[in-house]
Amino acid sequence: MIAAAVVLNIRYDLGVAAFSSVMYAISEIYRISLGTASIICYLLFVLLQCILSKKVTLTYLLEVPLSFAFGFLTDLYDMFIMDIECHIFLRMALFIATMFVTAMGVCLCVKTDLVLTPTDGIVKTISEVFAAAFSTVKNAFDISLVLVSVLLCFVNHTEFYGIGIGTILSALFLGRIIKMYERFLYPANKKLIGK
């Protein structure tokens, strides 16, 4: 579902989602597939989780094959999902709907302790290590990914690949949407999710 959302966000032509901005920039700058760039970033996130938590867990190890599966699915969707040509307001509505679906998927995966994508896994690890609300860390992490992708493009003297209004919206609001779902679905866990 998240792999499809990554490609759909590209097809809406409003800027990629914040969580995939670095991957997209790497794929465009270095002319590799989006799936390959995703695998590289995901494996780095798994390594960072091990370093931050100072341990190697089965959950972290399971994120490795998930990274390769996600990369493969991303390239598969990239081949088959066509460009979406419709009015900008409809594309914006679709982008926002995709953001809400993605946020719901992330929220449910985190709360049910399923194996997460490394992007969400690193956010969960940071939130646990620093005792911060997942949704707050998600917001900060997404914004930092956008800044890293801008820096990558700047250093390589390229256009700002994939950065658009959709990127800014997802960076600012995906974490907040997750927090909204957390408050609605898990009202007993307010201490964990933040006020």
Automatic annotation (TrEMBL):
InterPro entries: YczE/YyaS-like (IPR038750). It holds the Pfam family DUF6198. The chain crosses the membrane at residues 29-48, 60-82, 88-110, 130-154, 160-178. This is Integral membrane protein. It comes from the Bacteria. The keyword Glycoprotein does not apply. Keywords: Membrane, Transmembrane, Transmembrane helix.
